[in-house]
Specification:
229 residues, alpha/beta, Rossmann fold
Length: 229
Amino acid sequence: MTKKAVILLSGGLDSSTCVAIAQDEGFDVYGLSFRYGQRDTRELDAAAAVAKAMNISRHVIIDIDLRAFGGSALTDDIDVPKGRNEDEMAGEIPVTYVPARNTIFLSFALAYAETLKANEIFIGVNALDYSGYPDCRPEYIAAFQNMARLATKIGVEGDKDVHINTPLINMTKAEIIKTGISLGVDYSLTTSCYDPDKNGVACGECDSCLLRLKGFSDAGTEDPIEYQS
C-alpha cells in the first residue's frame, strides 16, 4: 500500500526540498498551498511549477484571507525590511512574521491528511538559518503534533499517530540546498523573496533573499534564480 503524505508547499526552496525528501522516503505526495492574502502571489506560481515538475499526486491551493487581520509586512501596508545583517534578523521577531500562519496552515494540512487517511504531514520549518519566527521552533512543532493526536479521529482511533515531519529543522540553508541538489530539486523553479518586482524578480535584499543567497554561497554553488541587484 502506498504511503501518503501532505506537504505544505510554499514554492520556496525549503518546501520543495521537503517534497524531494518525502518522495525519496517512498511517500505519495499531496501538496497544499495557500492564497492567504499575501501581497505578492508569485510563490503560488512557483508552487504549481514545483508540483508539476516533481510529479506530485495532487496540488491543492486554498483561499483564505489573512489581510482581514493584517499585522504583517506580507499581508499589510508595512515596508519589508531590507539589507539587514544576521544579528539584526535574530534580534526580534520581524514584521514579515504572519500571525499564527503555520498554525493555520498545519490545521488545514491536518484536515486534508484525515480525508486522505494519511498519518504524515511535512513542513519545511528550520530552526537554524531562519528569520526568528516563533512557529518554526521544535517545541512549537512538538506541541502541535500532540494537539493533532488529541484533536483528530485518525489520532484517537487510528492505528498510527499523526506525525509532523520536519526534516530540515536542524539543517543550515547550505545543508538544505546540498540535500535538494542531491535529490534532483530544480531550484530555478522556486522563489523566496518577500518583495519581488511586478515581474516576480527577487529583490535580493529582504531577509529571505539574503538567507537564501548565503545558503547557496555556503553550499559552493550559484543560486539559479534572477535577482534585481
